[in-house]
Amino acid sequence: MNSQAALANMASEVQKRTFGSAATHIQRNPAYSELNSDDVSYFKSILGDNGVVQDEDRIAVANVDWMGKYRGASQLLLLPKNTTEVSKILSYCNTRRLAVVPQGGNTGLVGGSVPVYDEVIVSLAGMDKIISFDNVNGILTSEAGCVLENLSTFVENEGFIMPLDLGAKGSCQIGGNISTNAGGLRFIRYGSLHGNVLGLEVVLADGTILDMLTTLRKDNTGYDLKHLFIGSEGSLGVVTKISVLTPAKLPATNVAFLSCNDYTSCQKLLLAARRNLGEILSAFEFMDHHCIDLAMRHLEGVQNPLPASQYKFYVLIETTGSDESYDKTKLEAFLLRSMEDGLVSDGVIAQDISQASNFWRIREGISEASVKVGAVYKYDLSIPVEKLYDIVEEMRCRLGDNAEVLGYGHLGDGNLHLNILSSKYDDSTLAQIEPFVYEWTSSQRGSISAEHGLGLMKAEKIHYSKSPEAVQLMASIKKLLDPNSILNPYKVLPQSVL
Ligand SMILES: O=C(O)CC[C@@H](O)C(=O)O
Ligand SMILES: [Zn+2]
């Protein structure tokens, strides 16, 4: 097969295997070169044989996302061990016009971390060293490929915690977390990575190493450029080192698992929790009963904390503070009062770590359980809390028996995860969901990507949440930093503006 025919074949294969409206009409950009044997030799000369992976099985793993939904056709996986090697890779790819996908733990949900066509995959997995920890100020500096859970364990041994926690912590990498501006379960208490990341080292598309790796809390010297890279999904540069502010670890954590009879009660409970638990409130997560049913069906070893009856909604509340008995008494009093006020129908406070882990396993495991069913359409929306559940109900009406619709997420942050489970991916189901879900979110002035990014899935949908002027400005920034558009192509921004 000649190379043109091979590419055409690859394109149609990618379209067949990659599901989602965004992917189906994007053509491979002909401006990109095709990889040749000289390129491979060059990469071997800088990375050694072990840093250049051509083994089909290993590349196959890196070509597909963890849901098995987005699949590229890359033939090359590179494993740099330091920033200089990343710089040499990008400088070469930029000159050669080879497109690149930076890859962290590949736990994303929007097809942002896998190739679309034959992009070279640059994995940060080999850059996983902790560089320093300032245990007076709680400032961690590390390479970007460190797995979040390893960093959590490290800082916890020092008496601190990571400001970020999420279900994928065992595989996701801090560089990927920062590149997607991951939100997660501690957002309500510690806020966004825009606030917690102090410094970054980033390699630009032409290989320039941009040293912004400060550990200062305050620094108003000019534009704060790191923010451009937090949440830009590897489309403006590759994050190679990070410094993060880690909050002190507090000794008392309590977790309650509650049920509510209706969504209005969940909202009122959130307000009551903010008022009554105040600064010790560290998580407020909600799930509808479809989520609990799914978790019980598909997660091994979990137990329903409230098995007596089926309730409509469940809420997980966590408090973290400095006084175990004071905090527990406060949470118990809050729970009792909420029951008297009719906001909570039933509830239980974890009596030990294993009960607390079971509560969290249910909440964190919903995403994992959702991909065991067949096909899952995932939407990650920011919507004003009072309207947040309306879209779940609208979707149920639209889809009827064709699908199971789940609503859960970080209620305390106004972030809904709308998951639609179906037996298989098909265009007719998709047509019932999109563009309605985006139009509806836009009509509420919500965001079509609260915390997962746009990736490939929503690159062409950005206009539902951003004005044409804002998108144009983003395109200008992309062209300035990556004029040959080699970094993570087809993602984040629509092709039409680039
Ligand atoms: O899979 C999803 O839709 C959500 C994943 C994650 O953000 C969560 O909060 O569990
Ligand atoms: Zn989430």
TrEMBL record:
Keywords for this protein: FAD, Flavoprotein, Oxidoreductase
Annotated Pfam families: FAD-oxidase_C, FAD_binding_4
GO MF term set: (R)-2-hydroxyglutarate dehydrogenase activity; FAD binding
EC identifiers of the protein: 1.1.99.39
Domain FAD-binding PCMH-type: 70-249
A GO CC term assigned to this protein in UniProt: mitochondrion
Chain segments annotated as coiled-coil in the UniProt record: none
Top-tier EC class: oxidoreductase
UniProt-listed Gene3D superfamilies: 3.30.465.10, 3.30.70.2190, 3.30.70.2740, Uridine Diphospho-n-acetylenolpyruvylglucosamine Reductase, domain 2 (3.30.43.10), Vanillyl-alcohol Oxidase, Chain A, domain 4 (1.10.45.10)
InterPro entries on file: FAD-bd_oxidored_4_C, FAD-bd_PCMH, FAD-bd_PCMH-like_sf, FAD-bd_PCMH_sub1, FAD-bd_PCMH_sub2, FAD-linked_Oxase-like_C, FAD-oxidored/transferase_4, Oxid_FAD_bind_N
Co-factor(s): FAD
Catalytic reaction(s) noted: (R)-2-hydroxyglutarate + A = 2-oxoglutarate + AH2
Similarity remark: Belongs to the FAD-binding oxidoreductase/transferase type 4 family.
Role: Catalyzes the oxidation of D-2-hydroxyglutarate to alpha-ketoglutarate.
PANTHER family membership: D-2-HYDROXYGLUTARATE DEHYDROGENASE, MITOCHONDRIAL
Protein's recorded name: Probable D-2-hydroxyglutarate dehydrogenase, mitochondrial
Species of the source: Panicum virgatum
Lineage of origin: Eukaryota, Viridiplantae, Streptophyta, Embryophyta, Tracheophyta
